[in-house]
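Lab channel / #folding
Pinned by the channel admin:
"Please post every new chain as: sequence first, then the structure tokens as a reply. Keep commentary short and put observations after the output so the thread stays searchable."

First post following the new format, from NK:
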Amino acid sequence: MKKVGLFFGSFNPIHIGHLIIANYIIENSDMEELWFVVSPQNPFKDKKSLLKDHNRLEMVNLAINNYPKMRASDIEFSLPKPSYTIDTLTYLHEKYPNHTFALIMGEDNLKGLKKWKNTDLLVNNHQIIVYPRIQNNEEKEIENFTHGNIQMIQAPIIELSATEIRNMIKSGKNTRPMLPPEVFDYLDRSNFYR
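Reply from TO:
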């Protein structure tokens, strides 16, 4: 069985924070591969500022070009919208019966996990790797969801947000240090987020 970590997200755009977390997990776990699952529409997010699916997939491919254990996945593009993680996992198990899948998520997502579709099924059947995020006091009050399959890791805390990067691009500010060089060049050539 090949063990694959699934890092779901809009990746609007993918930035160095995503790569640092992904690389840390690949280097410090038993994952053989890590797939960036580009989500067409998160049921909890506003779609207005979302770049087209293929543009975001293209940026992920550009960003991971030099990382042989990482892949970009467009699996959710063909699934019903909005996409729910449990449905995607069910589909992946059918398509790749020789793979086991683990979910990778930020600590902020763990707080809302009980609201997800079929949480029990998700947690009972999959390893969930949780990387730390800086939280405000209000978030600290909410207790983390705990389960034997949930593993907290000590990955570096990267406080970069795609929203902040989009706003900086819109304001004409330099985002070069925050983006993989290929993604910066891609965005620089386009009019995206301006």
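NK: The chain is about 35% helix and 20% strand.
TO: also worth noting, The mean pLDDT is 90.
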